Amino acid sequence: MVVLNMQPLADGQVMKPTPILDIKGLTVSRSGKVVLSKVDLAISKGEFIGLVGPNGSGKSTLLLAILGVLKAQQGTIDIYGHKPMSRNILGKIGWVSQAAAVMPKNVRITVRELVRLGTLNSRNMFLRRRSIHREKVERAMKMVGLEEVAEHDIGRLSGGQRQRAVIGRALASESEFILLDEPLVGIDRESRNSLLKLLDKLCHEENKTILMVSHDLAAIRQTAHRMIYLEESIRFDGPTEDFPDLTSLAGLRGIEPVHGHEHEHKTPVSVVIQTGGEDQTKKEEE
Amino acid sequence: MGIGMIVLDLISPVLEFIAPMVPGEIFPYFFTMEMFQRALVAAIMVTMVAGVLGSFLLIRNLALIGDGLAHVSFGGVAVGVVLGASSPLWYALVFSVISAIIIHEMQTRELLTGDASIAIFLTGMLALGLVVLRVFGGGITSDIEGYLFGSLLLIDERSLDLIATISILSLISLMTLYSGLLSTTIDPLAARVQGLPVRAIGLVFSILTAAVVVSMVQVIGALLVTALLVTPAATGQLVGRSFRSCLIWTQVFGLSAVFLGLYFSAEYDSGSGAMIALVAASIFAIVAVFKTIVIGLINPKDNF
């Protein structure tokens, strides 16, 4: 099922095509605490990357730094040859927030209205000629398979459909590089599968580059070509098939067998990825 | 001649044309006599703008900011009256706009979350007004009461000009900012990634809110501003399916409240502001009950 467009190299350093995202020695701190330290990461066009790690490991911080919302303390982020938030890359990056958490439920807004918001940018926000954008909006809704519910209020959609609508918004800007934050939260199994299929299609047929954060390790391994395991810094970066199993992952995280230790979890290794409790215990020890 | 009087000149032939068809004994004067016409035109303009603004306030979870800024305006009016200003509404405008900017900054900088900053300004400025009136002025005179509960028939040409200017400028601004406002409200981070000036839009919106609230004070009264700002928009949300249709429904409900409210207040000699607010709330109640019953009948087993 997994077809690689290009061969991502394990160390992410020497890539044949010029990377669209090139991060060097990135350190980011939030409220005085270092969340990311010395992250090096290069992403090329057409890659589908799963970004995993426990709660508070800096996944969201990394995304926000790429978007330019958080400032780097050290290091550089180069995206399409520019700094984050630069006017030159307007519209190239699509942000897909977690619909379950972000989409307000009290707002009456249809799928079409939401997707249309994706065509906005600082140049056209005041004077908008609808006709220019209509085709983009239709195409985006078709891509995410929501053209039949275009006039439905997003509050009445299922979790999966709502997440698709948010993806549709990002696609309407015709962005090439799509960042997703936990899109699988609050979505039933069937919707999850079709959502992953959609992302796979976007990557292969539309040649989009996808960077997706998820807790759902099993799901993301099915789809992503390349996996990144982040915990303050990048602990693993390589093809999905090389991604360590749970026991080696524990080693990667510096977790030793705990028999005899005072831990509340009986099987810490399997819990590690799912919860933050384990993570906090570790932080306290540091 | 200001914008207000120009609008009045344009509309008065229409009003006079409708007048013979208007029911009631006193209500038709709103369509024929200039003093009443001024009141009606002001009420219509303010209601239309308030409906659009209120729809955005509602989805931004800022339903009570109108109330807060109205109290601030009252403080401004009181200071203006004490200083002997001929048009105390200008003082209200300055007070209201400055407070709106500070409230907005406090909320975006997360100094105070949610309604707390509104509550502080509301009580602080109201108290300032009351103290100033008591110490330097004549206390709550009927003039002052007009600003608290609305004094539609006391709207003179200068007030109408101010109201019309604020209404027209605000409506144009809200329409130009329509997509930007919707985008920054629904998903601020996505809007920022698209390159929209999220903070600037929020700031402009706050200033517009402050101005519109001031324009409403004489029409419906500082204590009742929310009735035209939020109630029609909330009723619209019960009926509409898209944001656009909610906006249209809001206008329907808002204008109905104004016309019915003025009719009842004219015929039964009650205060216009209070009657409009009462009608607006009644419309909301009727629509809400009707919706619940209708949905219950159509789809008895659905859960809402």
Describe the structure.
- The complex is a heterodimer of chains A (286) and B (304).
- Helices cover 32% and strands 21% of the residues of chain A.
- In chain A, β6, α6 and β7 (209-213) form a beta-alpha-beta unit.
- In chain A, strands 5-6-7-3-8-9 form a six-stranded mixed beta sheet, sandwiched between helices. Chain A has a three-stranded antiparallel beta sheet with strand order 2-1-4, covered by helices on one side.
- Chain A is globular.
- Chain A starts with 20 loop residues before the first strand and ends with a helix.
- With 286 residues, chain A is an alpha/beta fold.
- Chain A has helices at residues 59-67, 99-102, 111-117, 130-143, 159-172, 189-204, 217-223, 246-252, 268-271, 277-285, and strands spanning 21-30, 33-43, 48-52, 74-79, 93-96, 177-181, 209-213, 226-231, 233-239.
- Chain A has ten helices and nine strands.
- In chain B, α3 (34-59) crosses α12 and α8 (157-186) runs antiparallel to α10 (198-220).
- Chain B has 304 residues and is mostly helical.
- Chain B is built from 14 helices and no strands.
- Helix content of chain B is 79%, strand content 0%.
- Chain B has helices at residues 3-18, 29-32, 34-59, 65-82, 88-108, 116-136, 142-149, 157-186, 188-193, 198-220, 225-229, 231-239, 243-268, 272-298.
- The A-B interface holds A 67, 69, 85, 87, 90-91, 93-97, 102-104, 106-110, 112-114, 116-118, 120-122, 125-128, 151-153, 166, 169-170, 173 and B 58-59, 61, 176-177, 179-180, 182-183, 185-187, 189-197, 237, 240-246.
DSSP strand tally of chain B: 0
Low-confidence parts of chain B lasting 5 or more residues at pLDDT below 50?
A: none
Q: How would you spell out the order of helices and strands of chain A? A: EEEHEEHHHHEHEHEEHHH
**Biggest beta-sheet profile of chain B:** none
Number of helices of chain B: 14
What is the overall shape of chain B? globular
Name the structural class of chain A. alpha/beta
Mean pLDDT of chain B: 90
Query: What is the count of structural domains of chain B?
Result: 1
The CATH homologous superfamily of chain B is called: ABC transporter involved in vitamin B12 uptake, BtuC
End-to-end separation of chain B: 54 Å
Q: Number of helical runs of chain A?
A: 10
CATH A-level architecture of chain B: Orthogonal Bundle
Oligomer: heterodimer
- Assign a percent range to the helix content of chain A: 25-40%
Write down the Rg of chain A. Answer: 19 Å
